[in-house]
Specification:
197 residues, 2 domains
Amino acid sequence: MKQMFSATLAVFFIAVSSITSCAQKSESVEPLYYVLTPGSDDVFGIPIDETFASISDSFEVVEAGEGLREGDPYNFLVVKVADELNVKIGFDGVLSNGRSHVYNFETRSSLVRDPYGLGVGSDLGRVMDAWPNGRVVSGLSDAGKYARYWTGTEIIFLLNPGHLEESCFIEYMPKCNIPRSITVEGIAVYPRLPDGS
């Protein structure tokens, strides 16, 4: 059963370069990327209406635990979707019957890209140019400081808060100077929050 979703990944794969010339007598292909598509009914082949129990049964679970979101506890799973692609899935609460639903997906894998080919390692400036209606959001949460670029869709780029000045964390929606040169460290998808709230 754990291979069920893996075998039916509804993720678009894009090869970023073609095979080298046959005259070179060697072939090389760049890695394939998992491309996130706003408005999709699934992320990495996982339907967004899946539950903790169904995902636990369908994927190899690397880690399971509990965290805090705005003071409220929630369950999470880290599952192996493919080689070099682990995804942390947060659920909408803690339910002993395993019926809590997907709240968000998060990964630090460089194999994941947005529709513009941006992902882990991309400069924030390129992300801002590709998503001009987005904004940087930073502040304090239960886990400490956070910084991210919300694209205006379900896709959010995770940034290292250590690269931002302290004024970025003093109040909600602060005005601070954000260097365009900082790089993306992860990507999150919040399928139930298309307005970014």
